[in-house]
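Readers of this paper often ask what the protein records in our data store actually look like. Such a record has a labelled line for the sequence and another for the backbone structure tokens. Nothing more is needed to write down the fold, since each code stands for a local backbone conformation. The remainder of this section carries one protein's record, kept here as part of the documentation.
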Amino acid sequence: MNRAETLQQQHDRLCFLRAFPRSAAELRRAESALAGFERRVTRVKDELDNSGIAGTSCRYPYNHTMATWLAARYGRAVTIDWKAYKRHAWDEVAALLSLAVACAENEGSTTTTCRRGSGSRRPRRAAARPISSGCSRA
């Protein structure tokens, strides 16, 4: 087992101990070890891409909404891989579907904002009363 694999296993174990500590002392030890973990992966961080370990890269073709949120939340820690972007064969139908699905996913909320027509935004309100299923209670 190489160094990167060993670090990945140690990180997974520490995350488990952080999530399910048997005692307060075990929680403190796990948090302390995770806080310094980024320094341990410096030499092998390229081998740990997409691992979720602090200090490593996470590459994913996020949609515009998610990319905007990540950039707003994490600032300079978020970068665009322009080389990969230019090489990617974009599926325009999938891009349009992701916009439609994003709006549809919010249908059940009390207010949602969806783009309509020429980019205007208009809030939508959920139904004030439940929709009847056609079944009656006896």
